[in-house]
Amino acid sequence: MGYKVAVVGATGNVGREMLNVLSERRFPADEVFAIASRRSLGSEVAFGDKTLKCADIEQFDFSKADFCLMSAGSTVSKEWAPRIGAAGCVVIDNSSAWRYDQDVPLIVPEVNADAIVGYTKKNIIANPNCSTAQLVVALKPLHDEAVIKRVVVSTYQSVSGAGKEAMDELWRQTKSKYVPGNEVEPNKFTKQIAFNCIPHIDVFMEDGYTKEEWKMLAETKKILDRRIRLTATCVRVPVFVGHSEAVNIEFEKPLSAEDARAILREAPGILVVDKPEDGGYVTPAEAAGEFATYVSRIREDATVENGLAMWVVADNLLKGAALNTVQIAETLINRKLLPRAA
Ligand SMILES: NC(=O)c1ccc[n+]([C@@H]2O[C@H](COP(=O)([O-])OP(=O)(O)OC[C@H]3O[C@@H](n4cnc5c(N)ncnc54)[C@H](OP(=O)(O)O)[C@@H]3O)[C@@H](O)[C@H]2O)c1
Asked: Which residue, 64, 60, 4, is CA-closest to 35?
């Protein structure tokens, strides 16, 4: 007997990837339910070689599922996650609705799997922001070795991080540049995204940072270590899938680039591709569709004491969302933490 898994947001960017990851990793599911809004009732989504018909969240009985993998945005999560959790189904949520709640564990299994035990308070587990997930996977093994004091990160985030409509906007705007008189005005983004970069993701906060930048700080502290100081600049770039990050780290103890490379080579979830030559690094186009977080361009930063710089790339829909969610469910199963064992 396997598990029953509900995927909420099954027609979206992350939801579709969740179905792919469940199938690809042969998740022990007896039954998988695809769920979205009423708009999508009856529409079909792929699950391995099967096709699932979408149910309407309003009509679905969550007490018949063990897991609810949720990616339908914060508003839906705020309303539905407590109800689904109360029905006895463990919610693993991708939105930012629950990440900062002290009764909800925020989990990246390679980094803080032990913190998962606290999930029973609300029956909700949060998945971090896509940019945070790949960052902490790369920081954790280095932090264990040399203790991180401060991180400066600049992100180059793909449009898929803003949902399927954002991907359509980049696609239509790019095409329209070659068809005079057919301009596509910004809608999902505040400025033209085709052939451009936008230093603005999520809303502005009082201190001038954006919420996306604040999330990276707050989530790194919750997942990895509250003492780490972090400053981020988050930029949307005209890439469809795959987030990249230029990361500068200041450690308490010395750590050479060579040692960092050796440590990261052994670290879970990481692949080091790092040769100082043409093409000796990974770009988002190569990371798209892959489970690994790639680290390249590891080098010493002589402008601070004990400094290192590196380049971190991952598929934001996979490690940044769907894969991490499925890994959390696998962690619950492997650690026998579910009330209803299969
Ligand atoms: N994209 C990423 O890289 C990423 C990474 C981490 C976290 N996340 C988070 O994951 C969530 C989804 O992102 P996405 O990129 O997959 O968005 P998306 O492509 O726009 O998909 C949104 C999904 O939510 C469903 N939905 C919307 N309103 C609903 C409602 N009232 N009831 C039930 N379902 C509803 C949609 O169903 P319909 O088709 O029926 O409208 C669709 O399946 C967001 O919270 C996002 O912040 C995304």
From this structure: 60
Confidence of residue 342 (pLDDT cuts 50, 70, 90): very low
Active-site hit among 130, 143, 200, 234: 130
**Sheet harboring 270-272: ordered strands across?**
229-236, 148-157, 243-251, 307-314, 293-301, 270-272
Backbone angles phi, psi at 112, to 5 degrees: -140, 45
Residue of 13, 83, 237, 240 best suited for mutating to test ligand 1, as the one with most atoms within 8 Å of CB: 13
Distance CA 271, CA 267 (A): 8
**CA 76 to centroid of ligand 1, rounded, Å:** 9
Q: The pTM is what?
A: 0.96
Q: Which two tokens stand for residue 196?
A: 């451009």
Q: What tokens does 253 get?
A: 């103890």
Specify the DSSP class assigned to residue 238. S
Q: How far is the CA of 136 from the centre of ligand 1 (A)?
A: 23
